[in-house]
Amino acid sequence: MATDSRFIASILRAGVMVCVAALLGGCVNTLLGELHVMHARVHPGGEALELVVARESRYSVEPSVNSVWKTSHYALHVLTLPAVDRRADWSALEGESRKILSFNGAPPKGVDYHYAAGTLFTAQASALQWCAVQADTACKPVGAVPLTDADGRVAHDRDGRHFFAAHQLFVTDRALPLVNVSARPGYQQFRQGPLDRPFLVEHRWLLAASHHSKRPGEPLLHIYDMERDTVETILAQALPEGGSPELLAVDRDEQGWQLLIKQTYCAETGKNQAGGKTIACDDHYAVQRPGQPRLEPLDISPDKSALVSWRVDFGHWDARRKRLWLFDAINRYDQPHGIAVQAVRFQPKPHP
Fold it and tell me: Could you say which of 87, 154, 162, 273 would form a disulfide bridge with 203 (CB–CB 3.0 to 4.6 Å)?
């Protein structure tokens, strides 16, 4: 959610505040059109990008000691764009979008919505449901599967049609699973690892990794092959600069798996006026290929590298075309009120 400062900035840009002094002796301040990029997906061929954008109308009643913003309307739109850098006002993009959900008021709490290739997924603590979005924004139910705390994570394939839930592989147009792997020895071994950030690749490989940096030699990624019932564990490697490697994204090309690694190196650069240490940190990026003895350093321009760490996931890295995709909603008074799509391009660095 946006901070109060972002709301104020958006108000200055949009000029859509309305004051009704007759209500409770104060004002009703209405802010229209706050945007959030909820999900983003790079199509398998790399030609198109699919974004799920939330738009909300918010209001507050003033004067108040602690002003509380409330949502009066909330809608989800799906937008398919060419796979190119793009910045555009939402007013221009809205005509290309398709509304897939709409609420009077805020959406229900504790519910996660995911959309891909015509299918809307609704995940709650106890169940996952999916339905096919129709032309009139109605959603035709397809199936549901119960979830527990032990298997509550859902992994979506980047093809938009396959997903993994409750130890089963599904296709979106069927209610019954294609495969159930719960009793397989290899899958049981896989589940003993950290099932954090699950991801499904080509409806065959199930990946699990950690958000946190690892020391060299510690497990960084677990890959489960559903066809062979085997598990591959990849250990963390480090660049010579030092620091702990962090896994940002995973992709697969003709040569096999590629892991995008960020490594932060901090060093003391002097003393500050209070007598304390001055620390400077640099981020370094590299590709790790399983079976190779060292990482392949990458050249990512400094002005873009700060954006990489928190807006990239397994599905937003195109290793074949050497680019990362970043998505953001623009809700600032000094920039167009819309959507920004950016491809961060990189090249391998020669080894010294």
Answer: 162
